[in-house]
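Researcher: I'm comparing several assemblies side by side, and this is the next one on my list. It has 626 residues spread over two chains. Same procedure as the others: predict the full complex and return the structure.
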Amino acid sequence: MIDWNMHLPALQVIIPMLSAAFVLLLRPRGLAWAGATAASAFTFAIAIMLTIGVLDGQSYVYQMGNWPAPYGIELGVDSFSALVLLIVSGASTLALLAGRKSLDTDIAEERQPLFYAAWLLALAGLVGIPVAADAFNIFVFMEISSLASYVLIAGGRDRRALPAVFKYLVMGTIGATFYLIGIGLIYLMTGTLNLADMELRIHEVADQKPILVAAGFITIGLALKAAVFPLHVWLPNAYTYSPNIVTVFLAACATKVSLYLLIRFDFFVFQPNLINHDIQFAYFLMPLAVLAILVASGVALFEKNLKRLFAYSSVAQIGYILLGASLVSVAGLTASVVHMFNHGLAKGTVFLAIACLATRYTNLRMDNIAGAAKHMPWTMAAFVVAGLSLVGVPGTAGFISKWYLLSAALEEGTVGWILVAAIIVSSLMAMAYVWRVIETAYFGVQANGNEPVVTNTQAVIDSPREAPIALLSVTWVGALANIYYGLAPSLPVTLATNAAETLMKVAP
Amino acid sequence: MELLGLYHYWVFAVLLMIGFYAVISKSNLIKKLIGLSIFQAAVFLLYITMGKVAGGTAPIIQAGVENAVFSNPLPQVLILTAIVVGISTMALGLGIVVRIKEEYGSIEERDIQEIDRR
């Protein structure tokens, strides 16, 4: 009898990866979607089982083919990776459940099996990174997920996605190659690629300069992948022109996985070994985080395209996550990890609501959706909930992470007050840009008569109405989750606290 | 002399920067991809040179050869994987350039930006 529980870390990656090949064969209409959704749901179920195990205090270490580490390849799941796994597989599953109709309009039927196979490969890569415990494996998973997500972004009908994806491909490859240089330098000095082994062996290295250079390369490379300001230029166009459901998936989790890796690598491998590295980490990333929060929120204030507005808001939110980490304290890391979860929820729901709007409006410019709430009251209500969560209004998930972030910043003394000011200013800006959308949708009047421009022929016949029921109900699942985790945040908070304590090497 | 003794690092650094320069400065998308390819190849060389042991041979145990010095084969294995990743990236990149040419009729970044602005 096989003990399935033990094999969960491996199954987590293998299931989406192998299903990708099967989905390719599912030619008849709709089957590819069903297969991909089933595989994604199964992946989500495994992530939930792993999370339950981790919450029970179980630690998952899996040695591929029973070869002991550091010679063999190791997989491992702890609180931090369990949380990231939940975000990734949850986002993928909800996006797929919601997205059948929306993707049918974006992707030609004969290309759908290919598209869904790419989706599952992206999922496999993204869940592979948190599961892997080997720096080179992580590189391979990173490239699997990136290559597949380039395909997803370019898969739609909007030709402007092509230059956007080309830019993403160039910058993403530079980022991944920087990461490769970094682990190459570490391998040169220590002869190991296993993260845990690396941490032990860097102690023995006499000359630490190459390790410091490696830390630089890895930080910059992953910052590129995570769209840390000012390395975010690939993100707005890639999110704006990709198919709406792809934006939901990628905005909810893709950059978070890179941030996970950035935080894990730095706190786990470098900070215990390099002298003063925590200060270098903080001094380097804190200004970038504050700039990201302020500048990107400012840009979002004046953006006219709905999707690009929230893409810039994502850059700002990445700033929050990074700001928490750059405080280098248990409280700061907890805030940062909780915000990964909550921002995934809020931004995923916002983009789901936008996908709902996009089923009835071709053009997602601000003036074009004026009065949308009259035709799509449920969509806009879900949007309001998610928007409030994004701002951080009490009672929504966003408030929890803002609260943790503020209290972590206050622990820092004088610098903390500046950070608190930055957080409050940017929250006000977030309020302003979310309000602009709400105002247009609820109180705006179309410039050319009252009827909005409609998308497909079907919608031309009956005037704009609510989005398809599957899409709308999943959007509401997201909106309700935002409220639920605002009132009962124990799951993300427990996992984040455990993760922060492990990373800071504080006994729980 | 010490600087010259580390010449393989110089090769790595110079190639890396040549590739990086091409990616940043060229407007032609194909030239950008060529730059990206050089950039990646530089890193492959970094890995491959680090596995070389002076006087080392291929790590194959042969009858009658005692105390042979072996080069480390692992970096080569790693870089085999990285080359595969590089090829896939290049193939996808070229595929996207073909699609851009079909849609925009140009592979110059400036032209494409010009067309999108209209």
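Model: For your comparison table: Chain A has 20 helices and two strands.
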